[in-house]
Amino acid sequence: DEGAMNSILESKITVIGKYLTKYVEPILNGTDPVLSEGLIPVVISDNGVVKKAYENQEWYRYAEKRWANAVILNDESKTYESGEVIPESNIESYFVWIPKYRYQLWDLGEYNSLTEVDNSKPHEIPIIFGDYDTRDSINGECTTPMLSGESGNCEVGDYMTHPAFISMNATGLWVGKFETGYKGNLDVTTSQVNVIEPESVQIKPNVNSWRNINVANAFYTSYDYKREMDSHMMKNTEWGAVAYLSHSKYGNMDSTRINNHNDFITGYASVLEPTCGYTGTNKACNQYGTESSVTQPWNTNIGNLATTTGNITGIYDMSGGALDYTMGILVDEAGIPFSGRSEEYNSGFNGKFSCPKCDNNQSTLDSLVNGLAFPNKKYYDSYIYSENTYHFNQRILGDATGELGPFTSATYETKERQINSWYQDEAKAISNASPWFARGGDRNIGLGAGIFNFYDQNGKDRNWCTYRIVLGM
User: Fold this and answer.
1) Torsions phi, psi of 393, nearest 5?
2) N or C: which end of the chain has fewer CB within 10 A?
């Protein structure tokens, strides 16, 4: 019956003897971490020491907000025994497992204007794990609409399988634990390496985020990084999957502390929680810098506050740091994605311009002569055309945009910003002027940054924009 379907049984399975079975957590209902060759399960102590996990023992427990972690090595020829320390010097990248789930809808996000925020909206998001796709034919469920602006037969209170897992046909996703960094020397001011260079990827703490890379180069760097693991640049709906899990009883249930390190160093957290929006360097609102009195690294009690779990097992840099480009793009009436708004401001993908006259260059080009081809549609989220940033109802249910309404505007230091009802995070829908979604906010916008921040960008290489890598399993 329905009550039995939604019940959760707590237990732990470990078989001791000659034949050892892998540990599974029953509440995940078969969506336990999938480990491919080259992806090593690990446990991380509070001080950041990494050890290879015993796979037959409890190395994750989502019921206690301890998410599964895994690493990719710099030297994959090196082997480690279970329980052995893996030195930081041989870790190239960290990933965190997001199990497939369905969640209970609380708002269909059908907003197309600014009104007033509703501070009662943030709440525990009910989630049920499992490799299961909800259906209209089942009472209390709805079939996931998947399309921008569509609600299907969904109603508030229904459970809906999150679209990120359906589009990737995955029982879970390995999400980069930190913003993507670059192996090699980067100027901390510019980090300008606008190239496709998968061999230079590193996803780890205490490195400078790889910025000043356009979306096309970021995508193909991600895509070519670990093709055998279906690596790709994070989609907008995948950001939503992490955000909603973070605000369930399995996550931190909070706004997630901002990374306010002035040099865009990964894994840091603000010593003080911002209490108001961007106001320069006002300490209560928005203090950023490099000093330990201002910001602290990932393996400290303060650093843990900047994770999706409130502990070291979670995902970092989803509030502040650099603004994370995602593969969420405005499309024309035929469903063809725009490259960017103009000849000057675009993603580097081959495609039309959404607003060629926005920059007064009177461009009449329909496509980029030397642009890169857009990937298969499963690697990006398409959003219906709009010419204003109030078109919040263009959302895809599950992407953590329109469902965060209602929305209003606020003025900080003479600059007007749009904000949503979840912790007053900034909220700007994409439009023809800026057709790409970016998430999380910048290191210096105080309260406006956050895991529920969404913003419009043009896809161009920017000093304040980076990207994140996901493995589809």
Assistant:
1) -80, 5
2) N
How do strand 465-466 and strand 323-330 relate by DSSP bridges?
parallel
How far apart, in whole angstroms, are the C-alpha atoms of residue 381 and residue 148? 8
* Whether the Cβ atoms of residue 33 and residue 129 lie closer than 8 Å to each other: no
Rounded CA gap, 114 and 68, in Å?
39
First to last CA, the chain: 31
Predicted pLDDT of residue 377: 96
What contacts 37, CB < 8 A, 6 or more positions away?
228
**13: Cβ–Cβ under 8 A, 6 or more apart, which residues?**
21, 23, 24, 26
| Per-residue b or e along 164-201, where b marks 16 or more CB atoms closer than 10 Å to that residue's CB | bbbbbebbbbbbbbbbbbbeeebeeeebebbebbeebb
Q: What angle do CA 28, 31, 33 make, to 5 degrees?
A: 110
Average pLDDT value for residue range 105-110: 98
Distances (CA, A) of 80 to 58, 87, 204: 18, 10, 19
User: Which amino acid is residue 241, in one-letter code?
Assistant: A
- Put simply, whether the predicted model's pTM sits higher than 0.85 gets the answer yes
CA 364/CA 352 separation, integer angstroms: 10
Task: Report helix, strand or coil for 241.
Answer: helix
Could you identify the residue written with the tokens 């000043």? 212
Distance between CA atoms of residues 53 and 449, nearest Å = 34
pLDDT in tens, 38-88: 999 999 999 999 999 999 999 999 999 999 999 999 999 999 999 999 999
Distance CA 255, CA 423 (A): 6
DSSP secondary structure letters along 404-430: G---EEEEETTEEEEE-TTTT-BB---
Confidence of residue 364 (pLDDT cuts 50, 70, 90): low
The candidate with the shortest Cα–Cα distance to 269, out of 295, 289, 247, is 295
The band of 250, judged by pLDDT with boundaries at 50, 70 and 90, is very high
